[in-house]
Design brief:
Elements (H helix, E strand, L loop, with lengths): L2 E5 L5 H10 L3 E5 L7 H5 L3 E2 L3 H5 L4 E4 L4 H9 L4 H4 L5 E4 L5 H13 L3 E4 L2 E2 L1 H7 L2 E6 L2 H14 E8 L3 H29 L4 H9 L6 H12 L8 H18 L4 H18 L7 H8 L5
Helix pairs in contact: 1-7, 4-6, 9-11, 9-12, 9-13, 9-14, 10-11, 12-13
Length: 293
C-alpha cells in the first residue's frame, strides 16, 4: 500500500480520496475548506492543515483542483508541493487544465526531482462516486505503470495517451464532444416539448438508436425534470471550453461548432447558471426560444 497525499476534496476529489483510503492506502487529505476532509477521515484517512503537512511523507501526491492557476499555486507556490514533498515523489494531477501548463509543470517537477503525470478524468460526480471514471494519462510509460494501481482504484477506463500534456489534450477533446452533445440534446428536448410529445418515451427510443450516448443516458432525465444540482458545473465546463478554443487556435485547427457551444456555455454562465450542472444548457435553449419559465 502507498502513502498518498490528496489535495482538493471537492465534488470529485472527495469520493476519489475515499476510494483510495477504503482500498487500504494511507491517505492524507488537504482542502482549503477544512470541513471537506470529513468523509475521508470517516473512511480511515487523515486530514492535514496545510499542503506541507499533507505531502510530508507522501510517495504519491494527487491533485483535483479547479483550474490551471490553482494547480500552479498548489505545486509551485509558496508552501506548495515542490517545496515540501519528498524527493522522487510521483505527482498525479487529476485536474483539467491547459496542456501547455501541464507540460511546463512537468518540466519544473523534473528539475526539482519529482515525477509527474497529467491524468484528467471524465465521468462527473457519478463516475467519481462509483469509481468508474475514464482517466486519460500523459507522462512517461514508467511513471504510468507506477501509478496504475492507484488509478485503477478510482477509474474503470485508464489509458496512457502520450507524453506530458497529452492527457489534458484528450480531456479538452472530451469536453468538446460532451458540450456539443449536451447542447443538441437540450435543443432536441425543447423541440419535442414544443410538439407535446411524450418526451420520456421519446428519450427512451432515441437512446436505443444511433442518437444514444452516455450523455443522453446520464443527462436527459435531469433536463426533463429540470433538476440541475451540479455533478459538473457550467462554470467548469466554460473554463474547459476556453482551453479547447485556445488550444485549437494554437494548433491552427478550426472548431466552428465548438466555438458556438463555447459561446452558449458563456451565455449560460452570465445568465446566472454558473453553479448549475452543465445539463442546464437546456435553460439557454428555453431562453432563446422564448420558453423560459
Amino acid at each position: 500500500m502507498t502513502n498518498i497525499a490528496f489535495i482538493g476534496l471537492g465534488i470529485m476529489g472527495s469520493p476519489m480520496a475515499v476510494h483510495l483510503a477504503e482500498a487500504g492506502h494511507t491517505v492524507t487529505g488537504f482542502n482549503r475548506s477544512p470541513q471537506r476532509t470529513a468523509p475521508l477521515i470517516d473512511a480511515g484517512g487523515t486530514g492535514a492543515s496545510s499542503i506541507a503537512e499533507a505531502v510530508a511523507d507522501a510517495e504519491i501526491i494527487a491533485l483535483m483542483v479547479p483550474d490551471s492557476p490553482d494547480v500552479e499555486t498548489v505545486l509551485a507556490g509558496e508552501g506548495g508541493v515542490f517545496d515540501n514533498a519528498p524527493d522522487g515523489a510521483l505527482i498525479i494531477d487529476f485536474s483539467s487544465i491547459r496542456p501547455d501548463v501541464a507540460r511546463s509543470l512537468a518540466e519544473q517537477a523534473g528539475t526539482r526531482g519529482f515525477r509527474m503525470l497529467d491524468a484528467p478524468v471524465s465521468g462527473g460526480e457519478a463516475g467519481a462516486v462509483n469509481a468508474t471514471l475514464s482517466i486519460m494519462v500523459g507522462g512517461s510509460p514508467d511513471d504510468f505503470d507506477t501509478a496504475r494501481p492507484v488509478l485503477d482504484v478510482v477509474g474503470r477506463t485508464v489509458v496512457h495517451v502520450g507524453p506530458n500534456g497529452s492527457g489534458q489534450t484528450v480531456k479538452a477533446a472530451n469536453q468538446l464532444i460532451v458540450a456539443g452533445t449536451l447542447e443538441l440534446l437540450a435543443e432536441a428536448i425543447v423541440f419535442l416539448e414544443a410538439y407535446e410529445v411524450d418526451t420520456a418515451a421519446a428519450v427512451e427510443v432515441l437512446g436505443g438508436g444511433l442518437a444514444g450516448s452516455a450523455v443522453l443516458n446520464q443527462k436527459a432525465r435531469r433536463m426533463l425534470d429540470r433538476e440541475f444540482e451540479p455533478g459538473f458545473r457550467i462554470e467548469l465546463h466554460h473554463k474547459d471550453l476556453g482551453i479547447v478554443t485556445a488550444a485549437a487556435r494554437e494548433a491552427g485547427v478550426v472548431t466552428p461548432v465548438g466555438a458556438l457551444v463555447a459561446q452558449l456555455m458563456a451565455s449560460a454562465r452570465v445568465n446566472g447558471d454558473a453553479g448549475l450542472d452543465h445539463s442546464a444548457l437546456l435553460r439557454g435553449v428555453e431562453r432563446l426560444s422564448g420558453r423560459a419559465g
